[in-house]
């Protein structure tokens, strides 16, 4: 008699949204479709996403301004550590909010301050930061390559695929190396779109920043075989 347990049923569709569909794996990403999905996600959740972006900008600006008041090297060092930790929590929150959009849920400001998975995220961030830093010392290009290869480590942790920072780095490495062409095109588009937002007196970043964050979350779910809710 077989002792193989049948797989659990798929999750129900989110309230008011279309049913999620499995994302294809194996390099089936269309960069244009990812950007288009990001646009749909932005327009569908414009208010919450702009508010989330404003909160991120306001917190980071406040930390930067307040840190300039320290004369002590020790206090300044401690403040920089605190600023880095807060920045990592906010980065996780943006990933969480972006994945909520891909799930067909409404992103909320409170998602920025959830700390679940922070320890493995911190470990991976330190290791990636060291690797990328060394890469930049070695003529910059190796640093850019490593940053590209480890771009998705946070998604593996926040999306609940792993609670191990090193494993999350491996997941990102494998996903990117298996889909270099489509992801390279996507990230070039992400940079160009945010650069355009930067040129619009920074105001454009309130729109391009969440748009591209959703596009990257869509890419993660699509290439990792996760679920993607089709947006109207």
Topology, please?
Elements: E1 20-22, H1 31-44, H2 46-67, H3 73-102, H4 118-137, H5 141-149, H6 153-158, H7 165-178, H8 180-199, H9 205-223, E2 227-229
Antiparallel strand pairs: 1-2
Helix pairs in contact: 1-8, 1-9, 2-3, 2-9, 3-4, 3-9, 4-5, 4-7, 8-9
Write a structural description.
The chain is mainly alpha-helical. Helix content is 66%, strand content 3%. It has nine helices and two strands, in the order E-H-H-H-H-H-H-H-H-H-E. The chain has a two-stranded antiparallel sheet. The N terminus is likely disordered.
Strand order of the largest sheet: 1-2
- Proportion in β-strands: under 5%
What distance lies between the first and last C-alpha atoms, to the nearest angstrom? 46 Å
Total count of strands: 2
Shape: globular
What class do helices, strands and sheet pairing give?
A: mainly alpha
Question: Could you describe the largest sheet, including whether it forms a barrel?
Answer: 2 strands, antiparallel
Low-confidence stretches: 1-27
Q: Which characteristics define this entry?
A:
single chain, 232 residues, mainly alpha, two-stranded antiparallel ribbon, disordered N terminus
Quick structural summary:
With 232 residues, this protein is mainly α. It contains nine helices and two strands, in the order E-H-H-H-H-H-H-H-H-H-E. Helix 3 packs across helix 4 (118-137).
């Amino acid at each position: 008699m077989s002792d193989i347990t049948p797989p659990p049923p798929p999750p129900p569709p989110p309230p008011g949204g279309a049913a999620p569909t499995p994302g294809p794996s194996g390099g089936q990403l269309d960069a244009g479709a990812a950007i288009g999905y990001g646009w749909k996600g932005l327009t569908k959740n414009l208010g919450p996403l702009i508010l989330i972006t404003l909160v991120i900008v306001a917190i980071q600006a406040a930390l930067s301004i307040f840190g300039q008041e320290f004369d002590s090297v020790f206090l300044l060092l401690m403040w920089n550590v605190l600023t880095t930790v807060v920045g990592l929590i906010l980065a996780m929150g943006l990933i969480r909010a972006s994945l909520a959009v891909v799930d067909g849920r409404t992103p909320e400001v409170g998602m920025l301050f959830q700390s679940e998975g922070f320890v493995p995220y911190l470990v991976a961030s330190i290791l990636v930061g060291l690797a990328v830093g060394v890469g930049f010392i070695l003529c910059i290009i190796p640093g850019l390559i490593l940053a590209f290869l480890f771009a998705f480590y946070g998604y593996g942790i926040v999306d609940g695929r792993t609670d191990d920072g090193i494993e999350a780095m491996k997941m990102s490495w494998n996903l990117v190396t298996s889909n270099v062409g489509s992801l390279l095109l996507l990230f070039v588009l992400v940079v160009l779109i945010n650069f355009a937002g930067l040129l619009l007196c920074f105001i454009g970043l309130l729109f391009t920043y969440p748009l591209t964050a959703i596009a990257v979350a869509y890419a993660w779910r699509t290439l990792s075989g996760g679920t993607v809710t089709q947006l109207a």
